[in-house]
Structure formats: C-alpha cells, structure tokens
Specification:
The chain is α+β, with helices and mostly antiparallel strands. It folds into two domains: 226 residues, Hypothetical protein, domain 2 (Endonuclease III, domain 1); 125 residues, Nucleoside Triphosphate Pyrophosphohydrolase (Alpha-Beta Complex), CATH 3.90.79.10. It is 45% helix and 14% strand. It is built from 15 helices and seven strands. Strands 1, 2, 3, 4, 5, 6 and 7 form a seven-stranded mixed sheet that branches. Strand 5 and strand 6 form a beta hairpin. The N and C termini lie far apart (74 Å).
C-alpha cells in the first residue's frame, strides 16, 4: 500500500516539474516555427471565429482556400448576416458538416440583433452563440482578447495526454477534465492565445496520432509518454459507435437539356442542400430490383420510353454514417410525360452550379454528369 501511494506521489511531482518547462520551451518553438496561415496575425474575433469553425473536421490544407473565399465574400459579421442561407451553403460546398455553415449564419444574425453588430468580448457571451462550444469560445477569447482560457481540441488532448502520461480515456468526462485543468495550468500570463496556438500546431505537425515525430519535438526530453515508450498507446480512447449504413439510389434524369432536383428538409444530413430524386432502401438494390421499385415506378413507370445508364457507385463516409450511393443517368425522350414536375424543380443542367449540393453529389457531377 505504501509503495502504491509513493508511486502516485512520484508521478504527481514529476508532472509538476514538467509543467514548469513546457510553457517556456513550447513558446520558444512556436515563435520560430509557427505556420504562416491566413488567419494568423490578426486579433479580429470574426476572422478567428470563421477559421475555427472551418477547421472543425477539416484539414488546414483543405480549409485554407475555403477561408479565403468565404471571408472575401463575407468580410465581417454584417455581410454574413445579410446573406441568404443558400449563398452561405454554396460557398461552404465541399467542406461537409453543413450545420457548421448554418450555425455561422444564425450566429451572425444573433450578433447583429443582440450585440448591435459587435462581436462579443466576454467568454460567456461568445459561448452563447449558436454553434460555438467551449473549445471555440476559448480559442476566440484567448487569441482575440488574450483572455486566460485553455482551448482544448483533439490535438491538444493528444499532446497533453502524452506529455503527462494520462491514462484516463480522453472522451470521458474525467479525462477531459484532467486535460483541461493541466492545459489551463500551463497558460502564460499575457500570451494565452499564442500558447493555445502553439499546442495546436504541435499536435498537428509533430505529435500526430500515429508515428509522432518525437525527434523533432521541442518537448521530447520532458514528455512522460516518450520516456516510458508509450506514445503509441496514448491517448486511451473508448470504442467508437458503430457507423450506420445507408443505401441511396439517385436518379439523374435528363430531358432536352434539363434535369430535376429537390431540396432536402427535415432533421437529417445535408439539410437544405439540393440533390437529384432519391430512393433510399434498407439494403443494396440492383437495377433489376430498382425497375420494380414502387417509388421508381411512381416517378417513371408510366413514361413511354427512357434509357437508363449506370450505376455510378460512390461511398461517402460521415462520422456516424456510411453512405453507399448508386447514381443512374436516366434519359427521357423529348416531350415524354411523367410525374416529376409535380414533385421536383426542373432546371437547365448548366444551372446546377448555382445550387448548394453535398460533397457526394459534387463528386458525381465532377466525373459523370455531362458524359
């Protein structure tokens, strides 16, 4: 029993010693190696907010161009608030997780009405905006206003967990609490924003999930996981929820230069985005079975003559859903009568680029739509 408590005490003292060195060494590294990103070097909370929302579930390399295009069109809260949701979604197209864009738009309107168009400076007020959680509020507050809030994202969770050899699962309430308290204890006075960004950069560039670049890390000599050769074991993660499989059949119906689309509604993925007529089934469906499907026949069964080409198959992976999609290109004779006009919007094919669509639709359009 005595040995057990001695080990706990020893580990606690070791962590305390590590904390004193981390802040200084990491800031020195960051000052020399920080990435030159378009949202760096500004204290404008709007720009920092947009960059943080874009970088949720998006790699920096992909998010860079989107940030530039988005802020060029919407350089401030007012221009974003006054835009239509359709235009916001169209500029977001390809980034995925479209609720992020809808929340940005709603929060901009809220800022205009509740804060007279001025981005709030108080952490609780920032946190009250739609789509902003504790991490994003802390990032904005620390970077824009130099407030002492630790911004703990996935990169920071991984860095802190390895530095201090934390064995609690990082998705657990206890694990998150420990990491957040340690991260907060490391914040230097007057440079909270720089330190938060330094931790993010370290996790993104060096302390990566697999095969971390420990030899290049400025903290390698004081990393507890490195010393015990446990970097591959940490952080400890709980088992992921099994992804749901969904089977989509899209009908790209073409007739004399026109096609048909609909807008997704309800509480589902890709809400308010546009797509071709969709038939969803609980298992894969082959062409022969599709031709006997009730939904298909309600749309096209009475059409005298049409040609069908495909399937063009795509797999689209979301966090908790795996979409298995078959696209069929259906060509109708000129003047053929069908039920589509009662349920869908008829548009010229070249007008598709004006409508916000999912990344799955975009992949199909890039490779097959006009062949």
């Amino acid at each position: 029993m005595y040995f057990f408590f001695f080990c706990i005490f020893a580990q606690s003292k070791r962590r305390e010693m590590v904390q004193h060195q981390v802040t200084r060494q990491l800031l020195n590294w960051y000052d020399e190696n920080k990435r030159d990103l378009p949202w760096r070097g500004t204290t404008d909370p709007y720009m920092i907010w947009v960059s943080e929302i874009i970088l949720q579930q998006t790699r920096v390399a992909q998010g860079w161009d989107y940030f530039v295009r988005f802020t060029r069109r919407f350089p401030n809260v007012e221009t974003l608030a006054n835009a239509s949701e359709e235009e916001v979604l169209r500029l977001w197209q390809g980034l995925g997780y479209y609720s992020r864009a809808r929340n940005l738009h709603a929060a901009a309107k809220d800022i205009m009405s509740r804060f007279n168009g001025q981005f709030p400076t108080c952490y609780p007020d920032i946190l009250s905006l739609k789509g902003i959680g504790e991490y994003t509020a802390a990032a904005i507050s620390s970077i824009a206003f130099n407030e002492p809030h630790a911004a703990v994202d996935g990169n920071v969770l991984r860095v802190i967990t390895r530095l201090f050899e934390i064995e609690e699962p990082v998705q657990s309430t206890q694990g998150k609490r420990i990491v957040k308290e340690l991260a907060k204890s490391l914040l230097p006075k007057g440079r909270s924003g720089a330190f938060n960004q330094a931790l993010m950069d370290l996790g993104s560039l060096l302390c990566v999930p697999r095969q971390p670049k420990c030899d290049d890390c400025p903290l390698t000599d004081i990393c507890m996981a490195r010393a015990s050769r446990r970097t591959d074991e940490l952080p400890v993660r709980l088992k992921k929820r099994k992804a749901r499989k969904r089977y989509f059949t899209y009908l790209h119906i073409r007739q004399d230069g026109y096609t048909y689309i609909q807008q997704r509604t309800g509480n589902d993925i890709w809400r308010n985005l546009y797509e071709f007529p969709l038939i969803e089934t609980n298992k894969p469906i082959e062409l022969e079975a599709l031709l006997q499907n009730d939904e298909y026949n309600q749309l096209l069964g009475e059409t005298a003559s049409h040609a069908i080409d495909g399937p063009f198959m795509y797999k689209h992976l979301l966090t908790h859903q795996h979409i298995h999609a078959n696209f069929y290109r259906v060509t109708l004779e000129k003047g053929a009568v069908h039920a589509l006009q009662n349920q869908y919007v008829q548009i010229a094919e070249e007008e598709m680029k004006r409508y916000p669509i999912s990344r799955l639709m975009h992949k199909y359009m890039e490779t097959n739509s006009y062949k």
